[in-house]
Request: fold
Amino acid sequence: MNDKHHIRAGIVGSGFSAAFHVEALNRVYEAHVEITGVYSPNAENRKAFAAERGLYACTSLDELISLCDVVHVCTPPATHEEIAVAALAMGRHCIIEKPFTGYFGDGAKSFDGRTFDRASALKEAMESVERILEAERESSASIAYAENWVFAPAIQKERELLEKTGAQVLWMHGEESHSGSHAEYYGKWSHSGGGSIMGKGVHPLTAALYLKKVEGRAREGKAIRPVAVSARTHAVTTSDWYRDEGHLRTSYTDIEDFGAVHVEFSDGSFADIFASELALGGVHNWLEVCANNHRTLCSINPNTAMQTYNPKDENFKDIYVVEKIGTKQGWSCISPDEDWFTGYQHEMNFVYRSFTRAEPLESDSQLAADTIAVVYGAYLSASQEGKVVRL
Reply:
């Protein structure tokens, strides 16, 4: 990099997350970001993805890494460790999509996410985390954890409240739920590393962990971190008692579609996180903060910034309303800029500002590591009918 504000980005992946990373990079203003290439092991997919966006399609991961300063890891989570370690070894910063890493089975075709030993999964997931953190420690580059909730305007405003008032956060509760993931591979533990807790719960969970980090940093100079977790999970849509009327996705194989997680922090405070595939009417994303001097409700999606009544669904056939809404008829909380409210463009702006100015990252590898520890601790707890697991 000759100009400290000019930085080259490379995208690994050609799916949903790769697409919104490119969109978010186009809106970064804290640095001049040049996307120098994209790579996916599927040649047809990478060529189509690159051609649609006017990007260069690399023929190998090594070629992509050599052409950029920052590697965006936008691939299935089972591949994150390998890509991140390779990029860090070549001195490239990494932006790693959620989930950071995890446990994806033993590689056997007979692997079943409903029956494996959760204690072993926690151990193996944290060993994967440690290998990534070790690669970062040995590198001149850094890891940014791509958790958009951290950078959602509502969460960042709450950060300001905590920093300026010296508040003590007593309890948080939050949720991410909708009617089921659109990703084809989601639903198999060997691909996604878990179900609702891993796929959805990590968003409000990481936001809660982040705000305790902010609180501790503001008052004591160090993060307040999680120390224990308990949880319960359910598989509803694949159960024999569920009555399917066609509104919820039911094609999961060996994951949960509901999870409730209780997190305890080192200072005695706690948080409750809910995640499910059981909610109709759009994505339900929120986090409530109960502090000793204020209370905040962060309504990420839906929110009432814009509300529209449409008497006929067909009127809005060419109009995007909001994610997972199901129908465009009647009243809806139509989002004027969904990516803005959910933090995607702010995420990239914060991260590239940190990279170009050598500033600390708000969403770093330690936050990612704590998230994975809580997630797999939660799965262990759920397998023991809610027994507390010490982290």
Summary: The domain at 148-346+372-390 is CATH 3.30.360.10 (Dihydrodipicolinate Reductase; domain 2).
